[in-house]
Amino acid sequence: MLLHLRRILAGLLALVAVGVAVLPADPTVDLVVAAHDLAPGVPLGAADVRVVPVPPSLSPAGAVSQRDALGRVLVSAARSGEPLTDARLGPVDPAVASVAVRLSDAGVVGLLRPGSRVDVVGAESTVLAADASVTAVRASEVVVLSTDRAAAHRLAAETLAGPVAVILR
């Protein structure tokens, strides 16, 4: 009788083991995260990102694939392990360039955040760039703006002579 019970128990344990082996694992999605602390404005390379499997409920809205992240720039710094989303990445457009400018009124810097749209005005009320996008805000007077390449060149040249002003859109 005892031998018979052992065989039944062994059979049941074998069935449980087979059931556990064939059950699907919890579903995961690939999430692209920063491989190390990343500075804004630097194109992302393969060594800058890594892919980690996470449950779908932990994947943020706008998560990007590794292919979509490579070559793009962050609009603000990212810490190691931080998920990368479309809102954190700058445009892919090769006709767009970013330039750091010093503002004449430090108080305006507090009104700006990444994604803000501004017009940039230089000396003599000259519009240097229209509808530029703020990609980063640094220190108390420096703002990184993304705009078309020609306007970025004008901004860089003008800021050599002195600070510029922005008009909020």
Fraction of residues in β-strands:
25-35%
Radius of gyration, taken over Cα atoms and rounded to an integer in Å: 26 Å
Largest sheet: 5 strands, antiparallel
Count of alpha and pi helical runs: 4
Task: Write down the secondary-structure element order.
Answer: HEEHEHEEEHE
Describe the structure.
There is one protein chain. With 169 residues, the protein is of the alpha+beta class. The protein folds into 2 domains: 29-88, Alpha-Beta Complex (Type Iii Antifreeze Protein Isoform Hplc 12); 96-168. Helix content is 25%, strand content 28%. It has helices spanning 2-22, 66-69, 106-109, 149-161, and strands spanning 29-34, 49-54, 96-102, 117-121, 127-138, 142-148, 165-168. The strands form 2 sheets. A 5-stranded antiparallel beta sheet has the order 3-6-5-4-7. A two-stranded antiparallel sheet has the order 1-2. The longest helix has 21 residues, at 2-22. The model has no long low-confidence stretch (mean pLDDT 86).
Give a quick precis of the structure.
The protein is of the alpha+beta class and 169 residues long.
Note the main attributes of this structure.
alpha+beta, 2 domains, 4 helices, 169 residues, 5-stranded antiparallel sheet, Type Iii Antifreeze Protein Isoform Hplc 12
SSE layout and pairings?
Elements: H1 2-22, E1 29-34, E2 49-54, H2 66-69, E3 96-102, H3 106-109, E4 117-121, E5 127-138, E6 142-148, H4 149-161, E7 165-168
Antiparallel strand pairs: 1-2, 3-6, 4-5, 4-7, 5-6
